[in-house]
């Protein structure tokens, strides 16, 4: 039997994407979702962090097995309070949680949403709601890149000492977490970014920072002394092509944008490199470990800007401008009409 802590309304505010082929959004009212399975939880949403390009996902990456009740509501990085939890759930009504939900289901830019047991973790109590929402996607992507796909040991092991790791778009949401986690694991980290973010990237723990406007990765990586053990590219295209020159023979090249082999230079076909494109999978157990490190003061998420629910258009404009340093977050509690 499910337990709940408050009366749940029949409907709630939501932001809808009107057409998957376009990026137009509209304010709407939707029924509050129902808990249908033992691993489902009804969450009262307090904040949602946006992800650049997410309004193109339904067009470019339509879910192969979408939830039958899926509505075109974006927003998958959430922080909120459990309202209804199953009797066998490790979470209870009233718990403050955060997570990345799977985009096969309806998103969280609505006052109430559904999250699964395997996605959830208790949110770090030293963070605000908006800071908590800014963690899951970026931190879990970085975690999986380093400690699953690149094969590094756990971040507090220090066993990556002596390894050199290059991170492109190091001032972005994922890049910032990659630098901090790799540094904690003991690696020497090199980050690329624009000139206005050099000091920020260095403050995260990068040993060396490359201004992409003045440093060409092809040329930089052609110098064997510069080559690294692991490259994690967060941009794709020309940046990913340049990353092939920067990774040493026997190294690892990971991309979160496109398969690296699509842009592999012909002259480097013989180089022995493990290359991989991956999409992050929500994992509450990993998120719990990340929350522990945050509560220990090892990390803080970077929030670029915060908007109210009704300012969703301005929030997405800021996100897509390319100038955000960290996450753009919608704070549901900024609204005077927000639900308690």
Give the gist of this structure:
This protein is α/β, with parallel strands linked by helices.
Structure explained in plain terms:
The chain has helices at residues 57-60, 129-133, 136-149, 173-184, 198-203, 217-222, 237-246, 284-295, 312-320, and strands spanning 3-4, 11-17, 25-31, 40-49, 77-85, 96-100, 112-116, 121-122, 164-167, 188-193, 208-211, 228-233, 247-255, 274-277, 303-308, 327-331. The protein has 340 residues and is α/β, with parallel strands linked by helices. The strands form three sheets. Strands 1, 4, 5, 6, 7, 8, 15 and 16 form an eight-stranded mixed beta sheet that branches. Strands 11-10-9-12-13-14 form a six-stranded parallel beta sheet, sandwiched between helices. Helix 9 links the parallel strand 15 and strand 16 (327-331). The longest helix has 14 residues, at 136-149. The model is unreliable at 336-340 (pLDDT under 50).
Key traits:
disordered C terminus; six-stranded parallel beta sheet; 340 residues; globular; alpha/beta; 16 strands
Radius of gyration: 20 Å
User: Main β-sheet, in a few words?
Assistant: 8 strands, mixed
Distance between the termini: 24 Å
SS field, number of helical segments:
9
How are helices and strands ordered from N to C? EEEEHEEEEHHEHEHEHEHEEHEHE
Overall 3D shape: globular
Which runs of at least 5 residues are low in confidence (pLDDT < 50)? 336-340
Q: What structural class is derived from the secondary structure elements? A: alpha/beta
SSE layout and pairing:
Layout (H helix, E strand, L loop, with lengths): L2 E2 L6 E7 L7 E7 L8 E10 L7 H4 L16 E9 L10 E5 L11 E5 L4 E2 L6 H5 L2 H14 L14 E4 L5 H12 L3 E6 L4 H6 L4 E4 L5 H6 L5 E6 L3 H10 E9 L18 E4 L6 H12 L7 E6 L3 H9 L6 E5 L9
Parallel strand pairs: 9-10, 9-12, 10-11, 12-13, 13-14, 15-16
Antiparallel strand pairs: 1-5, 2-3, 4-5, 4-7, 4-16, 5-6, 6-8
